[in-house]
């Protein structure tokens, strides 16, 4: 047939019998198989190294930036690249390179904390709803629907506009508040699927208690989809934080944030485009790294798509 | 089918009440609209109390909400604190954002599906890999970055379009803002179409279509696309609400006086009736779009229709 | 001869190596004749059928040799467009799982009528009438009312009847049925098989029946071809094979059918596993599992010997060095 079925890597439909599809080595568990796949995936290696680098500089920005991000000289405002200041100066005369390096901390902190919070809350609520069903499940689904009904950025504008704190926590809290329903849906669905597996039914028939079933049989099988969605969400949460900061309701000065810097730079984009380029580039690459990582993890954990 | 629609409509009611109440609480509970009305001056207590009574603000929050919803269903969205009718603001802003969203959705449909089909049919080849890399990059660049960059390039550097949109916001001026608004969703549509096509290409019924001796063109359009596009249509439908809500960033960049712009101004000025009115309509649009998707889904997939 | 497959070779290229799915298959079918192709999964019986229909997934599949003569023409030499006109019109295929093989979002009337629209240039209305006629023909009750319904609204047996109707639509000269009853309830299997056999007689079509169910074969087939590791190991008129198999593998297959007169005895099973198609054993591919294997079986690949014996009523062949001994022991 001439339809382009160039599935050189898969052979599901080649009716060649059982010995065809078995890969090298002995059968592995989902997790060790996933890890084996990941190690051989260049996308995982590139994004993993990038993320490692970002985490390190957000913990110790002084390693590669010796300046002070809050030390600015108005006289040098909007000047271009100079020795020792490769990215030039922004409108307040702050060093763009130093601020770009220091901006990683806010993005990574918000991304990681919000993802952890949303993933924990979402999988706890969704997992229990999926496992026990009944009125609790119905209630939770409706509540999740309500949160889905609220446009994210508008919700952020309304809720965060009254906040005066300059820490990252209000933003983290807000993202968790609007992010958990997505995770809870995934967790609920995969718990229901796992619960229906024959061996889980068998364990139930043999008299295993609820707690034991949930921890030993259901949770390990339901956690993979949550990890995949959470990893991809991490990237989008970082973009969301930057968007909120850009709109003036996310992080506030003196916190150094790419979103704030981009908003400031955008006002003078005609005169000094370099001010926009660096924080915007750093932000995009960070989001890209997490989304690529999520893609790689999904490919590894979902053998069906391979 | 009729019962299905009625059930879906009934399910929308609690979600509508929940979402609007939440927004209502956020807006009214968090800021003091009367204080905002007076700006920096301290209000005269008697006047403040009178205004509070007029605006129903002295009542418990749930009563305020009921009163407000009651008025909305009589077509009265209240008056902004500057004296302008909220309905007038709605009437001027919503058509603009609807046009912007329409441009974005058309771009998503045409470009996203085309790219997705091409790469799905050529999985693993160069076209596919390039499209995949491109979508990753597009997803990673936040809208406000791509918006400014494209505005700078097209509007300032090459000066092929006006960098900002005039108040009438005709379709021709909304092309670039619409593209900016569509970009991230466009990438998702492309990837979703690609996955869906690649899955269905391997389906048994497609092998049957080949065995029937159908021409390739007919196999693709009638059998492959029809099945593969069902999840894509669903995504685009739910995305309409998200686009309208997210248009705020695009509208700010291109100075479009649409829904996002009005809500943004409303929040900055703590103008509660404007914000709640706009968001309520937005929630309704979002819910209706979801309903439409469900119905479309039932039309496209008979397995749902007769379930 | 209606269909003559000669020395067909098919490979699949995978990440882990080349799988030789079909290695020199030769068989033929006459008009009005039923050839049953038997074998375990992975024996190459379905791949051969897909190669004949021209619906192999290429890549990863590849036809590396042989010819497929259909009504005198070598199908492998035809251009894709000419080949397409043969598919569905002159030869048709019935698949195992009708639910997944029918398009879930098109009504059965649309899917049946499509054959007439594409191959015969009929109008939609005429095609619809033809679809109803076909559904009547395969005895689907209330065809007129049900023609607009979708596959999931039919029972398994009815769906398989629709598959049969679709294959019969243009009265092809050859039908290939790939395990047409395997997915059905036992009670429905016989009905569907009878219908197929009856229609085949009526239209005087050639039928290739791919199956691993020996019970089905005995009732409907004229000849049997047994496949193992992508080769034909025995081919014979159906009665001869049941009377006395001339290949140890066929023998094993027959012995593994449960029988009422041997109640209580342990069921026979061929020892070992089907071979890995990426590393087919040298010599006779069956030798690691064969109770009769000698040194020659490990080194020399047996050709298809002509089997002669008392009471043979047709051409009979076996790819076993010891076919005489096997035949005698039976």
Question: Can you offer a commentary on this structure?
Answer:
The complex is a heterotrimer of chains A (306), B (307) and C (330). Chain A is an all-alpha fold. Chain A contains ten helices and no strands. The radius of gyration of chain A is 24 Å and the shape is elongated. In chain A, 46% of the residues are buried. By secondary structure, chain B is mainly alpha-helical. Helices cover 79% and strands 0% of the residues of chain B. In chain B, helix 6 (126-140) packs across helix 8 (171-201) and helix 8 (171-201) packs across helix 10. The longest helix of chain B has 38 residues, at 216-253. With 330 residues, chain C is α/β, with parallel strands linked by helices. Helix content of chain C is 35%, strand content 22%. Chain C has helices at 45-53, 80-86, 98-101, 108-120, 124-137, 143-146, 156-168, 186-203, 214-220, 238-243, 248-255, 295-299, 323-329; strands at 3-14, 17-29, 34-38, 61-70, 73-74, 91-94, 174-178, 206-211, 223-228, 231-237, 305-306, 317-318. In chain C, a hairpin with a 2-residue loop joins strand 9 (223-228) and strand 10 (231-237). The interface between B and C is medium-sized, with 23 and 28 residues. Chain C: This is ABC transporter ATP-binding protein. Chain C: It holds the Pfam family oligo_HPY. Chain C: It is found in: Cell membrane. Chain C: Keywords: ATP-binding, Cell membrane, Membrane, Nucleotide-binding, Transport. Chain C: It comes from Streptomyces luteolus.
